[in-house]
Amino acid sequence: MANQILVSAEKCVGCKICVGACNFGAITMQERPEHPKKQPIAVIDLNKCVFCGACVDACKFKAIEMKKDAPREGVDKSKYRGVWVYAEQRHGEISSVVYELLNEGARLAKQLEVPLSAVLIGSDIKAKAQDLIERGADKVYIFDDPVFIEFQDDPYASILTRLIEQEKPEIILMGATNIGRSFASRVAARIQTGLTADCTSLDVDLQNRNLLQTRPAFGGNIMATILTPNHRPQMATVRHKVFKEAKVEKGRKGEVIENKVDVSTLVNRTKFLGFIKDSSAHVNLADADIIVSGGRGLGKAEGFKLIEEFAELLGGAVGSSRAAVDSDWIPYSHQVGQTGRTVAPKVYIACGISGQIQHMVGMGSSDTIIAINKDATCPMMQTATYALEGDLYEIIPRIISEIKKSRCAV
Amino acid sequence: MNIIVCIKQVPNTTNVQIDHETGRLKREGVESIINPFDEYAIEEGVRLKERTGGKCIVVTMGPPQAESALREAISRGVDEAVLVSDRAFGGADTLATSYALSSAIKQLGDYSVILCGKQATDGDTAQVGPGIAEMLNIPHIAYVKKIEDINDKSMKVERMMEDGYDLIESPAPCLLTVVKEINNPRVPSLKGKMAAKKAVIKTFNAPSINADEKRIGLNGSPTQVMKIFTPPQRTGGEKFSGDAQQQAAALVKKMSDIGII
């Protein structure tokens, strides 16, 4: 049985409201010369329709009828209980997104009346378990073995899959980091469950214990709330900086479960050969609370010295627009936007960036945007929380000296 | 050494606009393009083929119109193109898409590497590449910024991370998802355009890839869209005036008021 969606030939008046209501471009109008009033009729392309029901709601003439399948065969949901956070570590340090997830995970676990657990995979990592407990984890599963010293998808996916099959959690949250997004996909595919990428808001429907996962799509132009109604666990990767970090509760007690790892049973096809640190400073855009970005308006590569100085003073990271990367003024690893990184810092300072849509989708959800630009009419200046008009080479040095002055005064 | 490149046709987001009255995407006049990240995958596939010999095959899943994306890939040097298209695939989430594409790839014979863009610009999930690898039971490496070494037995690649890059070796076949830094895509050549016009596109429907109907389309998708809405629009804020010094001072005061400094 497939889902069905039908347009009633009698009720449709050809008003086209549904065409505009469809976010997937699935509805077109077809001429109906045989119609007494020659009104066209809406035709739904089933290749594109996702049965979201937006057109059904939009139609004022009740001309669209949708029949969704009865819930598909899934899993026995009652066997799955508990909220998990994957405690991502890199080079032995817990990623800050984990503390954010523990905060949100604790809220969801409390609503569902289940424990919150953290899963820690690494080498020589046991000491970190107490950190996770003090940030709200009731239980910590540890896999500590030299094979996990560096992240590789195969062994990490193997071990996490095994633990999921054994313990059956109902929700698993992971950071939407390079690591999280890479192996979460693999784990979800192996256990055949739903995974929602890059969520920016979460909630639960207590009636059916479904996780309501809200995420941006089409470069942040629309938001979608996604469910995994018939499968468990419900997996989601979550963006950095959308939740506050859990507070530390010193001396908090929890259960630590150390699992033995039989390395010989792990799939491990790739080989880690080495790590090369990005030599340009201030590059960790995901972790930064403040990002100072430079664009075409800098006019030259040396302009980034000023941007770096500004970022350094604020303890922030250095970003850039695509134009600056394409001009070879700064490495690609700094690029913010559609073909670079998506960031959402507390403060984004755009210096000489006009704000083309491809850039805006990469930083538009920042809390505060400060724009410095010669052109007051450019999109960045129009959307910024604070807009400063003028030559950035005149304004930024003055901001820097004002900040220094204000700090001396304190 | 045969290379498979997976691509997706997406709406050109440069033109995507919101109708503020209805809160919906304006679709009229929005052209379809090859997902920008997939252009790097295509280019890398063609370069590998030129270097090592063999064939480069491009695969996409989508409605019949997606054929134009495949023809464009051929104009950029790809040898063969496969369209995976069936009404039964409609409404697929990343899991069902991974299943359909992996089932199609199983029909294509031996290959040493599969290349994907790191994510598509409409969904932004980055999940289909690793999902395909899992279903084909081959390793994958995501966020690849350089292929240092590759032959039909193994490959050595640089994986971009937040703080630098990792050097990883994998046996072939392996699936790689690539980032923009990996290359500069070429523009289609005249010869390529001619080839694209003449090319016969192979089409697979659900039965021809032996797809299990429970695992494709909406039926095979554990995730469901519950609702779609428009985020509140950011409206412009405060515009400072005065000379550089006055604006700088005003901003610093503001920054200290809201606790940034």
Report Rg of chain A: 25 Å
Count of helical segments of chain B?
Answer: 6
Rounded mean pLDDT of chain A is: 92
Q: Tell me which CATH architecture of the largest domain in chain A applies here.
A: 3-Layer(aba) Sandwich
Order of helices and strands of chain B: EEEEEHEHEHEHEEEEHEEEH
Could you tell me the number of beta strands of chain A?
22
List the chains of the largest interface with their residue counts: A-B, 120 and 103 residues
Strand arrangement within the widest β-sheet of chain B reads 11-10-9-12-8-1-6-7-13
Q: Helix share of residues of chain A?
A: 25-40%
Note the beta-strand portion of chain A: 25-35%
Fraction of residues in β-strands of chain B:
25-35%
Supply Rg of chain B. Answer: 22 Å
Annotated CATH homologous superfamily of the largest domain in chain A = HUPs
Number of helices of chain A: 11
Relevant CATH superfamily of chain B = HUPs
Characterization of this structure:
The complex is a heterodimer of chains A (410) and B (261). By secondary structure, chain A is an alpha/beta fold. Chain A folds into 3 domains: 4-67, Alpha-Beta Plaits (2-Layer Sandwich); 77-265, Rossmann fold (3-Layer(aba) Sandwich); 290-409, TPP-binding domain (Rossmann fold, 3-Layer(aba) Sandwich), CATH 3.40.50.1220. Chain A has 11 helices and 22 strands. Chain A has helices spanning 17-21, 54-58, 96-112, 129-134, 153-167, 178-191, 303-314, 322-326, 357-363, 379-383, 392-409; strands at residues 4-7, 27-30, 41-44, 64-67, 83-86, 89-90, 93-94, 116-122, 139-144, 171-175, 195-199, 201-205, 210-217, 222-227, 234-238, 255-258, 271-277, 290-294, 317-320, 347-351, 368-373, 386-389. The radius of gyration of chain A is 25 Å and the shape is flat. Chain B is built from 6 helices and 15 strands. In chain B, strand 9 (140-150) and strand 10 (154-161) form a beta hairpin. Chain B is globular. The model of chain B has no long low-confidence stretch (mean pLDDT 92). Classes of the chains: A alpha/beta (410), B alpha/beta (261). At the A-B interface, helix 1, helix 5, helix 6, strand 11 and strand 13 of A face strand 4, helix 3, helix 4, strand 9 and strand 10 of B. Strand 17 of chain A pairs antiparallel with strand 11 of chain B.
